[in-house]
Structure formats: C-alpha cells, structure tokens
Specification:
Layout (H helix, E strand, L loop, with lengths): L4 E5 L1 H6 L1 H12 L6 H16 L5 E6 L3 E10 L15 H8 L3 E9 L8 H11 L5 E6 L10 H8 L3 E7 L18 E7 L4
Parallel strand pairs: 4-5
Antiparallel strand pairs: 1-2, 2-3, 3-4, 5-7, 6-7
C-alpha cells in the first residue's frame, strides 16, 4: 500500500480543494441511489459556511489524491450550536464554550477502500493535537432502532471520547460532524473529549 501523507490545509487551500473534499464526502457516505448530487450540493453548502467559521482547521490524508479529511472550528455559547441540546448543559461545558475554548469536530471521513487502516485515527489525532482548546465536541448518529451503536459512536468511544447527551438538530446544517452517516437526523449524540496535550 502506498504511503499516506497527512497535511494541513489553510482556509484558502480548503476552499480550493472543495470539489475534491466533496468527492470524498459522496464516496464516504454513499447517498441514496440517485441522491449523490443532492448530498454533494448539501455538503458543499455546509462546507462553504464551515470554512468561514472562527479558528477553522482542516487536515487531509493524501495518497496521490485525497482519501480522507477531518475539519472543525470553534463554537460559541452565544451561537446556536448548543440551542438544540436536550437537558441542562453542564456549567463547565457552558463556560468553556462561552470563553471560546470549545472546538467542534465538524467532519471526519475516509474513503471506504481506506477504512480500517488507521487513517481516521491518524487524521483525528493529528488535527486535535494541534488545538489550543480545552474541549472538543462532536455530534453523531446514535444507536439505531435495533439498539446497535453507530460506527461513528463506536469509533469515538474507542478513541476515549464520552457521551454528554443529545442534540436535537432537525433544522440544523452545522450540527456537525458527518462522522457517521453524512445525514442530519432529528437527534444526534453529543460526544466530548479533552484534547491530547
């Protein structure tokens, strides 16, 4: 197997690479048959907004072409990201967010042919290790009707993340990340992690 190179993209480079990133998104999340165009357009619309967010940061995995990427940005309590949180937001989480110390992992995706090779782990760790924040959050699809944990939730658990609660995000486009399915659900599990130092 060829060498996988990780590299950081600036905001400008991310915008220049948006079509390649959208290709990875469509391939990684296999929209319903015939829905690839809608899935791609929806992703590009979200990506355009995300790139403009405060402290946007992005890492890509490259093997002569993109095979994966991870990106995110800081969120603020005064914004609307936490507005759909079900229940009472813990005080320490609210304080970290209000002080600009919370980073949302908005997207983590790897092409199916390159999964289970450690690329997602490398991307996630590399992106998060460079953060100057005290908390990282992600919202992923939770357990299905059969009670089985989603692949994304299982991955976050394996990486040492913990669940915080649920986010009602039926009307949200930045409920982040499409780590699991690429589709926004009525409610998603919120996971948290203190970044490695």
């Amino acid at each position: 197997m060829a060498e996988v190179y990780l590299r950081r993209l600036s905001r400008w480079q991310a915008e220049q690479q948006r079509d390649a990133v959208a290709d990875v998104h469509v391939a990684a999340y296999h929209g319903a048959a015939g829905a690839e165009y809608r899935d791609r357009q929806g992703f590009l619309s979200r990506f355009e907004q995300h790139v403009q967010r405060p402290a946007f940061d992005m890492a890509v995995a490259d093997m002569g072409g993109l095979v994966g990427c991870a990106y995110g940005f800081r969120i603020a309590r005064t914004g609307d990201w936490w507005s759909g949180f079900r229940g009472e937001l813990p005080t320490d989480i609210e304080e970290l967010t209000a002080s600009g110390r919370t980073f949302l992992l908005a997207e983590l995706m790897v092409l199916p042919a390159h999964r289970r090779t450690g690329i997602a782990t490398r991307l996630g760790e590399w992106l998060l290790s460079r953060l100057d924040t005290d908390l990282v959050v992600a919202a992923v699809d939770g357990s299905g009707n059969d009670g089985r944990e989603s692949a994304a939730a299982g991955t976050l658990r394996a990486w040492g993340w913990s669940t915080l609660g649920e986010l009602d995000c039926h009307a949200r486009s930045d409920s982040g990340p499409d780590v699991g399915s690429g589709r926004v659900r009525a409610a998603r599990e919120v996971w948290i992690r203190r970044p490695p130092r």
